[in-house]
Amino acid sequence: MLARQFTAKRFIVTCVALVVLQAGVSSAHVMLDTPNGDEQLTVGSEYVIRWHPAPAHPMGDWDLWYSSDGNTGTWKPIIMDLYPGDTTPTGVELTYDWTVPDDSTDMVRVLVVQEGLSGTWDDVSDADLSIVPMLGGDADRDGFVGFDDLSIVLASWGLDTVWGNGEFTNDNVVDGDDLDVLLENWQEPEPPADLVADIAPVGAPNGIVDGADLGALLARWKTSDPVADIAPVGSPDGIVDGADLGALLARWKNSYTTLLPEPSTLSLLAFAGVGLLRRRSARVVRR
What we know:
single chain; 6-stranded mixed sheet; 3-stranded antiparallel sheet; 9 strands; disordered N terminus
């Protein structure tokens, strides 16, 4: 009796071991490197999905999927039939730039499927990750709406562009509506404590960053005049542009007493700046 029980147990353990081994071999044909869980992705941003084959063998192609309701949810296609006839060696990384969809949830999984000539294998993120909405006005996608984003909006003013690159209203042009969205989500940081933007009167700054400095900067717009070329601070880039305007506005009314402009004041400044630039351009054309 004991011998029979031992034999039965040994048979069961052997079968379980074979199943586990087979599962391990099957999943080892492809390894998803990123995302692998706990990442936070922003709607509209680009995220690089990374994976690698192991071991190498005759290939068909790759499919990428995602689920917005966990590992047992509905899988939605990211891209199908990627790298057809792929012969990537074992361990060499493959990538795909995924534009994160407008599907906000904290139960996202990504699945990579390897379609081989002798079978299909896959790997999935080990844990859930999140997709979060893009903050309106966050042009540089750093999770904060401030002067850097205002600089991008002004530099892209009037241009046809895609959502996010200074354009937040889905009309494919950067204009006053986008500026309104930015100002609605404005987050006021403490301004830098320096007076690098105090450039006027030229040669004899007056100790405060104000309209005189804004006028001096706009008068030198798109030139290489070092007087107004103040950004990046500490290593100017050789041209007076939106980065310099952003640096100046970040220091607005900065003196021995710090005072930031209200969003409404920023709006008026931005429109005034755009108006001045248009008038300057018109004069150049007439000449």
